[in-house]
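Quick illustration, no need to memorize.
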Amino acid sequence: MKYKRILLKLSGEALMGNKQYGIDPHRLEQYVNEIKNVKEEGLEIAIVIGGGNIFRGVEGESAGIDRVQGDYMGMLATVINAMALQSALEKSGLFTRLMSGIKIEEVCEPFIKRRAVRHLEKGRIVIFGAGIGNPYFTTDSTASLRAIEIGADVVLKGTRVDGVYTEDPEKNPEARKFNKITFQEVYKKGLKVMDMTAFTLCHENNLPIIVFDMNKPGNLNEIVKGNEEVGTLIY
């Protein structure tokens, strides 16, 4: 295994599968199988999941909802996804802990760095819900911050595209994929990888990011084994 401890960032929208909103049980099962495969190799795994399949704070703003209120609603959406993922992981025989950036003690522990690290050392998968507990910060920023706090080796950003391209490959089929690219080159070329806060946090703390297609079976396993052909490494 190339890595000992990873932080896996999943988008909420990806959980929709072929549905218009909510959680597709088949997509959830697929993700659980991917995570279980790498967990069985002895990897320490932390997960951050978005909430866009249920609610996004920026969408609330356009509907007349106060931005701060909307962001807290979005945080609660991530907790719903995190609970669904936790339940599915435990059903498959894995041990988990759900930690929240806001206090919801009936369903999850508050985030405490040392406790999170201890859970990982004991072989539990730790899921971070409710963002960092503050408005105006995305789940990408949560992924970067939590990864730094727990001493993860890498942030794995699972998306529906298989890496970072010169342009959006869904709009331009001629777009070229990067296998590796430096943080500086991403800034220079103005490529969209994460929001700037999240990206800068990783850059300043020398934390590599790998962007990859989470929907392709086996990709996660290939990455943790060190296959550089899968996804794009940003370093």
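The chain has one domain: 5-234.
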